[in-house]
Fold this protein.
Amino acid sequence: MSSQNLPISDPPSSTGGNAWSSAISATPALRAFVSRLTESTRRAFTRRRPWYELVDRTAFSKPESLTDATSRIRKNYNYFRVNYITLLSAVLAFSLLSHPFSLLTIVSLISAWLFLYIFRAPDQPVVIGGRTFSDREILGILIILTVFVVFLTSVGSLLMSATLIGLGIICVHGAFRDPEDLFLDDQEISGTGLFSSFGGAATTAAVADVMARV
């Protein structure tokens, strides 16, 4: 009695759930950027002040002058920097979530920059319609597309309006919040950049890769 071998086919591999992880693993620059960004964000949030200090009603008072208000904003910003950035991000996120088309446009634009230029491997050319595009051509197209989205659509005005609202809230809070009970270390005072708590090493890989392509 002869045995008959049945054909065995390999089960199809699932790529949907692993698409993002595969993209990260395939691009060392993207993997390094995500790792550094995660570490920088985690480190920054360790400097976040308790929210009850931000909204302490007993600490609010009217500034005596414009100079006093400016001084208060500067001191409060140095102390509540991470809280203020979180608040500004929340205002931007709420504005984008309330406008799905603008959110989709921004996500698509950022994705195009990330996967078509910044973190694309040099040995992976972009081919559209049978034509291979160079790095300079991709960069030019992305710049033109960014200018169009930001300045010639409602996305730019939405981002600008949300940013101004967020900055207005921060300035009003900083002007009326008396900072006399707040104390800063010298190391905390030295970092006064808007995103100094989040930036630094997080963008090193991305900037280096962009400069190498230009």
Observations:
- Residues 154-176 form the longest helix (23 residues).
- The first strand starts at residue 126 and ends at 128.
- The mean pLDDT is 76.
- Strands lie at 126-128, 131-133.
